[in-house]
Specification:
The structure holds 2 protein chains of 2 kinds. Chain A is an alpha+beta fold. Chain A has 13 helices and 17 strands. In chain A, a hairpin with a 4-residue loop joins strand 8 and strand 9. By secondary structure, chain B is α/β, with parallel strands linked by helices. In chain B, strands 2-1-3-4-5 form a 5-stranded parallel β-sheet, sandwiched between helices.
C-alpha cells in the first residue's frame, strides 16, 4: 500500500469515527472561525462558552485545562461534560487551528445531578454558587432572569464582570461594597440571612428587590471551597410596604387639621373656664379632652416621622445649631410638665455650636428627657450633660428611675418596640421615639447608645458633629 | 389702631378657630375660604397687616396665592399654616415670615400674631424679604 492511499484511509477512518462518536468534536481555524463540527457537537445549543476558550488556546498555543461544565442541547436538555481544548499545529509548528472535545461526564452521577438541577431550575428563588476564585459555577434560570441576565453571562464569570451592570444597592440606595456582598461574606465563613438588596434588571429597566441568604460551601475536611446564595424576589412586598407607609402619611396628614381644631377650641374653652370651675366635673372633662388631643397630635407626628424614615424621605437640615439654647428650651418646658423632678444641665453653661437640624435636635432631646421623667415616677434628678470629644459633642440624658430590664435592652431601638409593656410603668405610645431619635442622629452624622440597669436608671447618649468654621 | 389680619383657609372649622383667637387679640379679622377669595378681599378692603395662609386648598393653592401677590407688587407679611412635613421649606419657598405647623396650639398662634403685629413688626418684615 502506498503512503498516499494509507493516508486517505486513515483520514476516512477518522472522519467515520467522528461522524458516529457520542462525544462532540469541533475544529476551529486559526482565525477562530468554526470549520467543522461532528453530529454530536451539532446538538450543542450555544458555542459561546467554547469560543472564549478557543481564543485562549489560539493565543497561547498550549492546551487549555479541561473543565467540567453544564452544556445545553438544542432539544432543551442539559448535560454535564468535560471540555478539552488543544491547539493544532501545522508541519512547520505554526498554530493552524484549535480542536475542542466535548465529552459527557460519566452517566450515573450525571443523572442525579441533572435531576437536582431540574429541581433548582424550577425554583422561584434564584440560586447561585461560586467557587474559591469568586467565579460562578452555577446559577439557576430564575436567578438569571430576575437580573436580566442569561445563564452564560453568569456561569464561568466572576461577579466583578457584571456587578456594575446590576448596580447592586442597599434598600436605602447606598451601593454595596464588594466586602458587603452576601457571597463574599459567606466565603469568610459567615452565614448571611435576610439581607436586602436592590438590583437593576436592564432587560425590564426596573429595580428588583431581593432578600438574600448566603452560606459557605465546605468540603469534607471543612475547608471553604465556595459559597451558595439564595435570593427571593420581594419586590411586591417592598412595594406594598411603601404603599402602606404612603397611606399612613396621608391618613396622618388628614388628621392634622381636625386635631388642630379640637385642640384649639378646648384651649379656648379652658381659658374661658371661670376660676371656681377648677374642681368642677366639666373642667375635668375638658382637661381629659385636652390630654387626648395632645396624645393624638403626638401619634400623628410619630406616624409621619416613622413612615418618612422608612421611605427614606426624611428631610434633615445641616445648619449651625446652638445646643445649649436648645437644651435650655427643652428643660424649661419639661420642668413645667414634671414639677417633682429636678433638672440639671451639666457642661451647658456656655454656647456649643454644632451641625444639625435645630428642630430635630430639640425633638430628640425632648424625647429622651420625656422618657427620663416618665420612667422615674418617684421624681428625682434628670441630668442633661454635654461633653466635647474631638470633633463631636456627646449629649447624655440620665435618669434615676426604673431602668430597662436586661432581656429587653437589645430591642429598644426597634420600631414599635415598647420596653415597658406589661410592667406597671407602661406609658402607652407607639414605641417609636427611640427608633426615630437614633435614625435622626444617624442622618445627622452621629450615633445613639444607652446603658441601663433595672431599678437604677438609664443613661442615653448621642453624638453630633461640632460646627466647623470654614 | 386695630390691626387687620386676613385668614386664608378652606377648612371652615379651623378658619373660625383662628378667627376667634384673633378676635380675642383685638384684631380686625377678615376671612377667605380660598386663595381667589383672599385676593378679592385684598382688592376690595386693602392690604391687611398680616396674612395667615393655608397652603393646600382646592383651586388656587397657598403658594400660588403668595406668588400672585408678589406679582402684583404687594409685599405683605405672610405666616404659613400647613400640615405638610416640610412646613419650614414651604414657608421659605414663598418667602413667608414664619410658619405654623399643624396641629399648632392656640398659644403658638397668639405668639406669632403678637410678634408680627407688635412694635417690632417693621424689622421682621424686612428680614422676611430676600
Amino acid at each position: 500500500m502506498d503512503l498516499a492511499r494509507e493516508h486517505d484511509l486513515r483520514g476516512k477512518a477518522i472522519a467515520d469515527l467522528l461522524e458516529c462518536a457520542s462525544y462532540g468534536v469541533i475544529y476551529y481555524g486559526a482565525d477562530g472561525r468554526m470549520i467543522y463540527e461532528n453530529p454530536a457537537a451539532c446538538v450543542l445549543a450555544d458555542h459561546g462558552m467554547l469560543v472564549e476558550r478557543v481564543a485562549d488556546v489560539l493565543a497561547l498555543g498550549v492546551p487549555g485545562p479541561p473543565v467540567e461544565r453544564i452544556v445545553a442541547r438544542t432539544d432543551g436538555t442539559k448535560v454535564r461534560a468535560w471540555i478539552w481544548t488543544t491547539p493544532m499545529l501545522d508541519s512547520s509548528g505554526k498554530i493552524a487551528g484549535a480542536l475542542v472535545g466535548v465529552i459527557p461526564s460519566s452517566n450515573k452521577p450525571q443523572q442525579h445531578l441533572l435531576e437536582l438541577e431540574a429541581v433548582i431550575d424550577s425554583m422561584v428563588d434564584g440560586v447561585f454558587v461560586i467557587d474559591r476564585d469568586l467565579r460562578f459555577t452555577f446559577a439557576n434560570i430564575a436567578g438569571a432572569t430576575a437580573r436580566g441576565l442569561r445563564l452564560n453571562d453568569i456561569v464561568g464569570h466572576t461577579m466583578d464582570e457584571f456587578s456594575a451592570r446590576l448596580r447592586v444597592r442597599h434598600p436605602d440606595q447606598r451601593p454595596y461594597t464588594r466586602a458587603e456582598l452576601p457571597l463574599v461574606r459567606a466565603m469568610t465563613g459567615e452565614v448571611v440571612r435576610g439581607l436586602d438588596k436592590i438590583v437593576f434588571n436592564s432587560v425590564t429597566g426596573q429595580d428588583v428587590h431581593f432578600r438574600i441568604s448566603a452560606s459557605p460551601v465546605r468540603d469534607r475536611e471543612g475547608t471553604i471551597i465556595g459559597a451558595v446564595e439564595v435570593a427571593s424576589d420581594v419586590t411586591a412586598v417592598v412595594e406594598l410596604e411603601t404603599l402602606k407607609d404612603e397611606f399612613m402619611q396621608v391618613v396622618a396628614h388628614e388628621l392634622k387639621t381636625p386635631v388642630t381644631v379640637v385642640k384649639g377650641f378646648i384651649d379656648l374653652l379652658l381659658r374661658d373656664a371661670p376660676p371656681d370651675m377648677r374642681s368642677d366635673k366639666r373642667r375635668k372633662m375638658l382637661d381629659a379632652i385636652d390630654r387626648g388631643a395632645n396624645r393624638l397630635a403626638k401619634i400623628i407626628d410619630d406616624v409621619i416621622d416613622v413612615s418618612q424614615l422608612h421611605l427614606g424621605r426624611m428631610a434633615v437640615r445641616s445648619e449651625l445649631v446652638e445646643l445649649t439654647g436648645v437644651v435650655r428650651k427643652v428643660v424649661t418646658t419639661a420642668q413645667l410638665d414634671a414639677p417633682h423632678h429636678v433638672f440639671r444641665m451639666i457642661g451647658l453653661d456656655r454656647p456649643i455650636r454644632i451641625r444639625g437640624d435645630a428642630l430635630r435636635i430639640e425633638q430628640i432631646i425632648k424625647a429622651l428627657v420625656d422618657n427620663g421623667t416618665s420612667y422615674s415616677p418617684e421624681g428625682g434628678d434628670i441630668e442633661v450633660a454635654a461633653t466635647i470629644r474631638d470633633t463631636q459633642v456627646v449629649v447624655t440624658v440620665t435618669d434615676h428611675g426604673v431602668g430597662i430590664r436586661a432581656e429587653r435592652q437589645p430591642r429598644i431601638f426597634e420600631r414599635f418596640y415598647r420596653a415597658h409593656t406589661d410592667t406597671p410603668y407602661d406609658r402607652g405610645g407607639l414605641g417609636v421615639s427611640l427608633f426615630i431619635g437614633r435614625q435622626l442622629v444617624r442622618i445627622m452624622g452621629g450615633e445613639m447608645s444607652f446603658e441601663s440597669q433595672d431599678g437604677v436608671g438609664s443613661r442615653f447618649s448621642f453624638t453630633l458633629p461640632l460646627w466647623e468654621d470654614r | 389702631m386695630t390691626r387687620s389680619v386676613l385668614v386664608v383657609e378652606d377648612d371652615d372649622d379651623l378658619r373660625s378657630l383662628v378667627a376667634e383667637v384673633l378676635a380675642r387679640e383685638h384684631c380686625d379679622v377678615r376671612e377667605a375660604a380660598s386663595g381667589e377669595a383672599g385676593l378679592d378681599d385684598i382688592a376690595r378692603n386693602g392690604r391687611p397687616d398680616l396674612i395667615l395662609l393655608d397652603m393646600r386648598m382646592p383651586g388656587m393653592s397657598g403658594a400660588e396665592f403668595a406668588r400672585e401677590l408678589r406679582r402684583r407688587g404687594e409685599m405683605l407679611t405672610i405666616v404659613v399654616m400647613t400640615a405638610a412635613v416640610s412646613a419650614r421649606t414651604l414657608a421659605e419657598e414663598i418667602q413667608a415670615a414664619a410658619w405654623l405647623a399643624k396641629p399648632f396650639s392656640v398659644s403658638a398662634l397668639v405668639t406669632i400674631v403678637r410678634t408680627f403685629l407688635g412694635e417690632d413688626v417693621q424689622r421682621l418684615e424686612r428680614r422676611a424679604e430676600p
